[in-house]
Amino acid sequence: MSARRPCQRVLGWLGLLAMVCAAQAAALRPASDDEIVETLPTLGAYVSEQRALRRQLSAQPRDAKTALALSRSLLERARHDGDARLAGQALGALRAWEADPAPPADIRLQRATLHQYLHDFDGAAAELEALLAATPRQPQALLTLATVYRVQGRYADSDGACARLADAGQPLYAQACQAENQALRGENEAARRRLDALLAAQPGNPGWRAWIHTTLGELETRAGRPDAALAQFRAALQAQPDDAYAHIALIDALIDTRAWAEAERLLGSDDSEAGLLRRAVVARARGSADAARLQGTVAARYAQAGLRPEAVAVHARERARFALDVEAAPARALALARLNLQSQREAIDFVVMQRAATAAGDAAAQAEVVALARQIGLRDARLGPGPAEAAR
């Protein structure tokens, strides 16, 4: 079960960015000295900071710096807690520019990031294209756009955004971006060669190396080479030990290979949404004494976050994994995985649905997953036999 490129990171990305993905965002230069790239405050610090920012914004509703600071703080907490309502509040912090036909670039970029987090990928793409129409040489917007299209399974459109990165003065990012798409199509040997060359191009850049190693790890996961994937994720963390995206990717690879003890050790007491879900999965697999407690904690978080109906789609993949691997409810997992695939089409989304379909004994759903993957051009050994290249 590989991690989602949060934004990370995005995601954290959204968690890359979880914005673009965590690994990607870490390697990018902030758009301004005021941009918050990553903060990990305590809950008390979040509340105190947000209270002060709300007061400032109430006094000056069109102060873009304050609005962005509040919006980013709320989104960071939303990512940690898995609460889509906080992302809605983050959008609300930018409401002064709702009717503005030409808002500041940072406002548009933040709105796009929030739409992406809320799985409104069309809305995110529209914001980014509008931003790029005004400022075409905006690397962060282009990389985010390439990721949004990739998440939707629109690889040709993602290729186009990747190519535009070279015109924006970022040829290495353009090549790395294109290599990710090559790998998703199963062009693994070509993608490996390209990514290995990119590693050599930036030997002293830990963020860059973490991103490329993580991309290689995901390639090897899809190619059905778990040991090679583990080696790449470990190399990513060796390059940048605090890379949250690579950390979760390694844990997922360990879960895939049933290395429960090491996965549990790496998770520690992580109480983020991503961490709690994986702790619950590992605890159930190991029959740990705290399995029931962790299951209840995760279920309560999902119930709280799901008070708004639209939040169900935001967490559909995670809920599907929870239903499948913790609650042993494959029929519910399949329904959630199918809902998720309507908007989000990363490799892991297909794998989760196929696993749920297999557990539910639904052969038609299994065929549906494979057909949709082939339709968008995805090649993943975990989905069954494909072209020879996909298995190399």
| Helix coverage percent | 55-70%
Reported CATH architecture: Alpha Horseshoe
The first-level CATH class name: Mainly Alpha
Element string (H = helix, E = strand)? HEEHHHHHHHHHHHHHHHHHHHHH
Number of strands: 2
CATH superfamily: Tetratricopeptide repeat domain
Distance between the termini: 20 Å
Given the helix and strand composition, which structural class is it? Answer: mainly alpha
Number of helices: 22
Radius of gyration: 20 Å
The major β-sheet equals:
none
**Overall tally of structural domains:** 1
Describe the oligomeric state of these chains in a short phrase.
single chain
- Beta content comes to under 5%
The name of the CATH topology is Serine Threonine Protein Phosphatase 5, Tetratricopeptide repeat
Mean pLDDT: 88
Estimate the global geometry from the Cα principal axes. Answer: globular
Would you identify the regions where 5 or more consecutive residues have pLDDT less than 50? 1-7, 9-41, 386-392
What characteristics describe this protein?
Serine Threonine Protein Phosphatase 5, Tetratricopeptide repeat, mainly alpha, single chain, 392 residues
Task: Explain this structure.
Helices cover 69% and strands 2% of the residues. The chain is mainly alpha-helical. It has one domain: Tetratricopeptide repeat domain (Serine Threonine Protein Phosphatase 5, Tetratricopeptide repeat), CATH 1.25.40. The chain is globular and about 55 Å long. The relative contact order is 0.10.
